[in-house]
Amino acid sequence: MPKLWNTTVEEHRRTVHTAILDSTAALIAEHGLAVTMSQIAQHTGIGRATLYKYFKDVEAIVLAWHERQVSDHLCQLNAAIAECTDPAERLRTALSAYAGLSSAGHSTPHTGVEGTSAVQTALALHQAPHLHHAQRHVHDLLTEVITVAADAGMARTDVPPAELASYCLHALTAAAASPSPAARDRLVDVTLTGLLPPAG
């Protein structure tokens, strides 16, 4: 096939793929996981046969959506600290960005329903390989930020940076339940306090 034709077909596939993910997220946000492939196809504006060429079932679509969300969050986190040169500012920015992402999306569409399918999908999301990769990436990124801050005398050195990174990530998980941006900022402040060099 001509190169132009191949490019056009690939762009069309990407467009349809994105539309399927967006439609599924919108439907689940409104109805919970009790949505069907027929509803998704109709909402996307494609036939069921076309939909099945892309995904085998609703769970596969949700997993793909989740992978996209996680990837977007990683990009946002990297972008947030990219322009920070001051170690202390970079550390606070990294923690604030992570807390903001934790509270903003919860990384999964609203289920809206209880039951076996919802539980199975939730378990699948948390066990998905892309999530483990993302968690490792965030941990490594935060470890590097803490290491630089410690070298500059702005973070404690009596605890290994990797352990401090784990502490921060676990502490900031609570941001998902923060009732307001102010509460989230207070949580970041408390977490940062734990990173300061010991007095004396």
How would you describe the overall organization of this protein?
- This protein has 9 helices and no strands.
- About 10% of the residues have low confidence.
- The N and C termini lie far apart (72 Å).
- With 200 residues, it is mainly alpha-helical.
- It folds into 2 domains: 56 residues, Orthogonal Bundle (Arc Repressor Mutant, subunit A); 142 residues, Tetracycline Repressor, domain 2 (Orthogonal Bundle), CATH 1.10.357.10.
- The relative contact order is 0.11.
What is this structure's SSE topology?
Blueprint: H1 3-31, H2 37-44, H3 48-54, H4 58-82, H5 87-105, H6 116-127, H7 129-151, H8 161-172, H9 181-193
Helix pairs in contact: 1-2, 1-4, 2-3, 4-5, 4-7, 5-7, 5-9, 7-8, 8-9
Question: Short summary of the structure?
Answer:
The protein is mostly helical and 200 residues long. The chain is 74% helix and 0% strand. The protein folds into two domains: 1-56, Arc Repressor Mutant, subunit A (Orthogonal Bundle); 59-200, Tetracycline Repressor, domain 2 (Orthogonal Bundle), CATH 1.10.357.10.
